[in-house]
């Protein structure tokens, strides 16, 4: 098989996974190609592909989970449809190494912490395009409509050598829909449920020869729930539109575009926010030779908010423009990837920041070497940022196939978190002498991959220097580089497809310690468990999830204890006619009252309450 035909075969295998994230830019080993590129001939083969799926986020090239040399979790379209989350964080909560905190439910501020790192140290990509607020530093996870996405990849561990700043704890990539099959394929969904919730959506996807297209629109509105006891329900609405087009050529080249825009309003205690979340991109990929593929991506991301807090009007807008050039050289079973990236953050705000823009230029390279049964990875990236100077990050990894079932892996990586505009330049508060937070992570993992099951065990240790904290120094309250953290953890993930059962489990033990005080880092649980079980019964599917986490602390002194909790969610699906289906979910069945965050003492020190028991029903027409 020639390198070009091998690339095309993998592109077809990964179709719909990541055109903007270089899904077709690399290759798996010959063994992976021969075992997965052929048409699926049995339920066993399909099950094996779901349990050992292709991932692209970990390496910039398609690799099966056991070949990625990383700790990864993949949530596919079938699982997203079964669980039908109202918030993207619902599907992420208590996945291996993942912790979620929120200021209530339905459009309220949420953070996704991976491997004990803060929310600003988790990178969010939508089809390879980064989205986050440059002022706050973290993405607005709560404002993303889950039905816009057909796949989620979670890579745990540092990926600074691939993506630059803020990939300290890990990377979450959301993949939008793409037309895969010939002809137009429409779908319409309508439903509602508790708290006055209404939810509608429509989509059209398809393919005509080498042209693929996808269009989607959705609307969700809800009266919401109380997030502060006695303060009344806080509503939320979200309207999202999405378009994606691509055109392939006979020489293996491809061009495409993507646009996703969400807007709406979210109420909170004392006010409300009008928001916009938007990503847009253009890409072109060209096979320069049979062994060399080049790709250029131009993108824009926007995070906009207009707040009305007790009559005080403010706005904070971020726009990020990026250009990325990526090249893949295929040398037999080996891949060499190298490129350059330029990005510029601009902010517009009612607050008078001392600086309102910064740019970043980067060079990166990675080698993926397959000497079966030994595989090696090495990556290096150089960033030059206008605000804080130069940073070099790297990654080394190796794996060894002990036999046909077990693979041992080890890795070491560095990463950094860039100070936010608020930390650097907010009027009367910012500190423009801040250095980035810098981390080092060593990891050892062992994976067992069976015909209809898998398990993955990993242990790691992360050291973070120059952690940024708000504190008083020389009579000034501001952000300073003061803390040193050590995070140790054990993660176990397992799953099986047995007869008509789909089973998944995740267990995480984390010790996120502030080395200066010996206390646990703020708002981190140290133990979590997630169990997902679904069964197909003819035209019906029945399933449920159990999620449990222990207590956490809301303050650096570990005086404000937030109790642990256990949640039970149930679901049922019914294919009651050709192309017609119904989905029902019961969330927080035991009506557990729980909180993962507490307001500051200045605000009154009350717990942010999450929603209680809720039921939702939706009807869908389409495949």
Description:
49% of the residues are buried. The strands form five sheets. This protein has a 22-stranded antiparallel beta barrel. It starts with a helix and ends with a strand. It is mainly beta. It is globular, with a radius of gyration of 23 Å. It is built from seven helices and 33 strands.
Write the layout of secondary structure elements.
Elements: H1 3-13, H2 30-36, H3 43-51, E1 54-55, E2 63-64, E3 71-75, H4 77-83, H5 88-92, E4 98-102, E5 110-114, E6 122-126, E7 129-130, E8 149-156, H6 160-163, E9 170-176, E10 183-193, E11 197-208, E12 211-226, E13 233-248, E14 254-268, E15 271-287, E16 292-309, E17 312-331, E18 334-349, E19 357-371, E20 374-385, E21 389-401, E22 406-417, H7 421-425, E23 437-449, E24 453-473, E25 476-498, E26 501-514, E27 527-537, E28 540-549, E29 552-553, E30 561-562, E31 565-577, E32 580-587, E33 614-621
The largest pleated sheet is described as: 22 strands, antiparallel, barrel
Tally the helices: what do you get?
Answer: 7
Helix content bin: under 10%
What's the overall average pLDDT, rounded? Answer: 91
Report Rg. Answer: 23 Å
């Amino acid at each position: 098989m020639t390198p070009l035909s091998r690339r095309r075969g993998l592109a077809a295998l990964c179709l719909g996974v990541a055109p903007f994230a270089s899904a077709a830019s690399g290759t798996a080993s010959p063994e992976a190609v021969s075992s997965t590129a052929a048409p699926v001939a049995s339920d066993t083969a399909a099950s094996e592909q779901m349990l050992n799926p292709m991932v692209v986020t970990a390496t910039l090239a398609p690799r099966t989970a056991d070949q990625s040399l990383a700790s990864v979790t993949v949530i596919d379209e079938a699982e997203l449809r079964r669980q039908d989350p109202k918030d993207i964080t619902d599907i992420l909560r208590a996945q291996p190494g993942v912790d979620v905190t929120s200021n209530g439910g339905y459009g309220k501020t949420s953070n996704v912490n991976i491997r004990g790192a803060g929310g600003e140290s988790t990178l969010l990509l939508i089809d390879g395009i980064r989205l986050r607020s440059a002022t706050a530093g973290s993405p607005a996870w709560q404002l993303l409509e889950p039905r816009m996405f057909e796949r989620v990849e979670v890579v745990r561990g540092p990926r600074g050598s691939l993506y630059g700043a803020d990939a300290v704890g890990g990377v979450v990539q959301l993949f939008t829909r793409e037309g895969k099959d010939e002809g137009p394929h429409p779908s319409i969904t309508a439903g509602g449920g508790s708290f006055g919730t209404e939810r509608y959506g429509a989509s059209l996807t398809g393919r005509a020869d080498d042209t693929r297209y996808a269009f989607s629109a959705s609307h969700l509105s809800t009266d919401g729930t109380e997030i502060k006891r006695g303060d009344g329900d806080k509503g939320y609405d979200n309207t999202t539109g999405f378009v994606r087009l691509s055109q392939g050529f006979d020489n293996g080249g491809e061009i495409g575009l993507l646009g996703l825009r969400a807007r709406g309003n979210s109420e909170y205690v004392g006010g409300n926010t009008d928001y916009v979340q938007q990503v847009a991109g253009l890409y072109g990929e060209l096979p320069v030779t049979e062994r060399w593929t080049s790709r250029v991506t131009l993108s824009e991301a926007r995070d906009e908010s207009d707040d009305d807090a007790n009559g005080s009007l403010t706005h904070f807008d971020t726009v990020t423009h990026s250009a990325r050039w990526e090249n893949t050289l295929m040398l037999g079973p080996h891949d060499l990837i190298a490129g350059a990236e330029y990005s510029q953050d601009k902010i517009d705000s009612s607050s008078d920041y001392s600086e309102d823009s910064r740019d970043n230029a980067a060079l990166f390279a990675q080698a993926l070497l397959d000497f079966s049964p030994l595989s090696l990875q090495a990556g290096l990236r150089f960033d030059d940022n206008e605000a804080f100077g130069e940073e070099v990050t790297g990654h080394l990894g190796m794996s060894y196939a002990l036999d046909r079932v077990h693979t041992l892996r080890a890795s070491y990586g560095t990463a950094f978190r860039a100070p936010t505009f608020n930390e650097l330049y907010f009027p009367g508060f910012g500190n423009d002498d801040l250095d980035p937070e810098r981390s080092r992570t060593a990891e050892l993992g062992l994976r067992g991959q069976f015909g209809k099951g898998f398990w993955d065990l990993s242990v790691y240790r992360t050291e973070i220097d120059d952690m940024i904290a708000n504190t008083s120094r020389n009579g000034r309250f501001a952000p300073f580089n003061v803390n040193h953290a050590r995070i140790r953890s054990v993660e176990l993930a397992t799953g099986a497809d047995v007869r008509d059962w789909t089973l998944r489990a995740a267990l995480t033990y984390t010790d996120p310690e502030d080395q200066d005080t010996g206390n646990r880092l703020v708002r981190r649980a140290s133990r979590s468990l997630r169990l997902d079980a679904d069964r197909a019964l003819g035209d019906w599917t029945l399933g449920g999830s159990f999620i449990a986490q222990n207590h956490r602390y809301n303050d650096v002194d570990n005086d404000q204890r937030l109790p642990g909790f256990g949640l039970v969610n149930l679901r049922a699906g019914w294919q009651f006619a050709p192309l017609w289906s119904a989905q029902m979910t019961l969330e927080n069945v035991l009506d557990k009252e729980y909180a993962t965050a507490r307001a500051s003492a200045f605000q009154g020190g009350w717990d942010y309450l999450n929603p209680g028991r809720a039921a939702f029903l939706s009807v869908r027409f389409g495949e």
